[in-house]
Amino acid sequence: MAAPRTLLVTGGAGFIGSNFIRYMLAKYDYHVINLDKLTYAGNLDNLRDVEGDPRYRFVRGDVCDSAVVTELMAEADAVINFAAESHVDRSIEDPGVFIQTQVYGTFVLLEAARNASIDRFLHISTDEVYGHSLGDQRFTEDDPFKPRSPYAAAKAGGELQCHAIKETYGLPIVIARPANNIGPYQYPEKAIPLFVTNALDDEPLPLYGEGLQVRDRLYVDDHCAALDLLLHEGEIGEAYNISAGNERTNIDVAETILEMLEKPKSLIRFVEDRPGHDQRYAMSSKKLEALGWSPQHDFEAAMEKTVAWYRDNRDWWKKIKSGEYREYYERMYGQRLAGSKPFKG
Ligand code: NAD
Ligand code: DAU
């Protein structure tokens, strides 16, 4: 009997990676090695329910460390690369580590992969590589890259290497470009878990600018289903947009959360905007849909599941919010909230 397939998942202790590992272990008889540095965003609590599974192994390590990457690559049949610094605001404060992980870390993984016998390298990029959509613009996979934040530029650098390595050495690369994910286990620096957990604590919801920027909210399980499909059936060398068509302004999102939790709209505060704030990300997912994928969660369903999870899992986020996070929150929002404008809806 052939040995079960082994997946090397990088960044699997973060938000999407942990949801993906849980999804794959439930669906397949695969083995999973999770290589994660455990930065502030990596959290072993995200995978408590699978840590005893004999098919799962956690390795603490950095994707920039070629010794550990080379060793694990020798055991892997396929790689799914989630490892990244993922928060745009932190990239504006301190871009260096974003370049290190997204650009150099991806290089190390690709070098090791081309010297091993992996059958697929699924790289998780982002819709932000296109820059923001203007007017009715909806990006397709052939649109040029115009990243507008240090985070997005670092992601573009990582992805571009994947294309070059595929062309030069024939490495079996597939690229995913997902929209904004929401769901369980998202670190509460990101807008939706931040708003939900603040609302649950009767704390203000800090909305950047006038709250009119638009994001397309993709439920994380729909994203995992798309990645599963790309891992097995994505065409080598191709990139695929993953978007759900759930576009809403940030103010709509904040109001929806407050309604779902029966909290007053007066918790909304308009604060100083993010520098270079992207107005809207909008993509067409027709190429992925042609492979048979469609999102199963519209905006309301995605929000209902997400809000309910944070309401029912206070211990998970209370632990995070009592640690390093407090210093981050004060630095990021202290001044802004002091100069904030109240909501007059
Ligand atoms: P996250 O910040 O929750 O998790 C990132 C994980 O990577 C953490 O566990 C962290 O410890 C790990 N990591 C960071 N640097 C590392 C390194 N040098 N070596 C090994 N591990 C390292 O991020 P997320 O939201 O789960 O995003 C996962 C991937 O998806 C990222 O590549 C991100 O750019 C991309 N993405 C995210 C979204 C989204 O909405 N969250 C949308 C599109 C694309
Ligand atoms: O689009 C995909 C990207 O989505 C991913 O590549 C990134 O890793 C991920 O972090 C996310 O980026 P965003 O910048 O869109 O997500 P964030 O949750 O930080 O912000 C969502 C929107 O909410 C954005 O318009 C900024 C706004 N915002 C954010 C925060 C943290 C606020 O108004 N107030 C806030 O406090």
The order of strands across the largest sheet is 3-2-1-4-5-6-10
CATH superfamily of the domain at 6-182 and 217-242: NAD(P)-binding Rossmann-like Domain
Number of strands: 13
The poorly predicted ranges are: none
CATH architecture annotation name of the domain at 6-182 and 217-242: 3-Layer(aba) Sandwich
Radius of gyration: 20 Å
Average pLDDT confidence is 97
Give short descriptive properties of this protein.
345 residues, alpha/beta, Rossmann fold, seven-stranded parallel sheet, three-stranded mixed sheet, 12 helices, 41% helix, binds nicotinamide-adenine-dinucleotide, binds 2'deoxy-thymidine-5'-diphospho-alpha-D-glucose
Record the SSE blueprint.
Layout: E1 6-10, H1 15-27, E2 31-36, E3 56-60, H2 66-73, E4 78-81, H3 88-93, H4 96-114, E5 120-124, H5 150-169, E6 173-178, E7 180-182, H6 191-200, E8 205-208, E9 214-219, H7 220-233, E10 239-242, E11 247-249, H8 250-260, E12 268-271, H9 286-289, H10 299-312, H11 314-321, H12 325-338, E13 341-342
Parallel strand pairs: 1-2, 1-4, 2-3, 4-5, 5-6, 6-10, 7-9, 8-12
Antiparallel strand pairs: 9-11, 12-13
Helix pairs in contact: 1-7, 2-4, 4-5, 6-8, 6-10
2'deoxy-thymidine-5'-diphospho-alpha-D-glucose binds next to helix 6 and strand 8.
Structure characterization notes:
This protein is of the alpha/beta class. It has a domain at 6-182 and 217-242: NAD(P)-binding Rossmann-like Domain (Rossmann fold), CATH 3.40.50.720. The chain is built from 12 helices and 13 strands. The chain has helices at 15-27, 66-73, 88-93, 96-114, 150-169, 191-200, 220-233, 250-260, 286-289, 299-312, 314-321, 325-338, and strands at residues 6-10, 31-36, 56-60, 78-81, 120-124, 173-178, 180-182, 205-208, 214-219, 239-242, 247-249, 268-271, 341-342. The protein has a 7-stranded parallel beta sheet, with helices on both faces. A 3-stranded mixed beta sheet has the order 7-9-11. It has a 3-stranded mixed beta sheet with strand order 8-12-13, with helices on both faces. Helix 1 (15-27) packs across helix 7, helix 4 (96-114) packs parallel to helix 5 (150-169) and helix 6 (191-200) crosses helix 10. The longest helix is centred in the middle third of the chain and has 20 residues, at 150-169. The chain is globular and about 60 Å long. The mean pLDDT is 97. 2'deoxy-thymidine-5'-diphospho-alpha-D-glucose binds at residues 86-88, 126-128, 179-180, 190-191, 194, 206-208, 213, 215, 250, 274, 281.
